[in-house]
Write a structure and sequence with these properties.
six-stranded parallel sheet, mainly beta, globular, 16 strands
Length: 171
């Protein structure tokens, strides 16, 4: 645990590749995110499922402060009290690629699915059923995004002033 909230695993400080698995938090358990990758710690995920993460800060399932890549990964029912219901990608100036990744039922005020600071490439994504009564956006960022083939449907954004995509200052 640190200023960003509790983590299931120790904070990653070196390159980490995680393949073929499922991480799930019991809905009644104390809040924690699954992974936090610190500065200079590239994080690569392949064939992973994250269910019911809940951060009291940013990144309901994953908080990354450097290069982040994901393929054939599913983020479901994760929540952040801060930004990035499933993913919060800070200072990812090396770029981020999300390939064949599903986001379903995630929630946060800014970026119910993803909140990011660096450039983001989304390829073959399925973004459905994200957001709740407090969500102002499904994707939130402060840098460019390339969206290539995606299904974006049935996201819940009832709050006044909400948008599917919000780029610029969070306020």
């Amino acid at each position: 645990s640190d200023a960003d909230g509790a983590n299931a695993l120790p904070i990653l400080v070196n390159t980490f590749t995680f393949t073929h698995g499922r991480l799930e938090r019991e809905p009644t358990a104390a809040p924690f995110r699954f992974l936090k990758a610190g500065p200079s710690a590239p994080l690569h995920l392949l064939n992973i499922q994250f269910h019911n993460g809940h951060s009291t800060g940013d990144g309901g399932a994953v908080l990354a402060d450097y290069v982040f890549n994901s393929g054939t990964t599913r983020f479901e029912n994760n929540r952040a009290d801060g930004d990035g219901g499933a993913l919060r990608l800070r200072d990812t100036s090396g770029g981020t690629l999300l390939f064949a990744t599903d986001f379903h039922g995630n929630a946060a005020t800014h970026g119910a699915a993803v909140s990011h600071d660096g450039s983001l490439t989304l390829f073959h994504l399925h973004i459905e059923g994200n957001g709740d009564s407090d969500s102002l956006s499904v994707l939130h960022g402060n840098a460019g995004v390339n969206l290539i083939t995606a299904v974006i449907a049935d996201n819940k954004l009832p709050a006044t002033g909400s948008n599917l995509f919000h780029y610029g200052n969070a306020a």
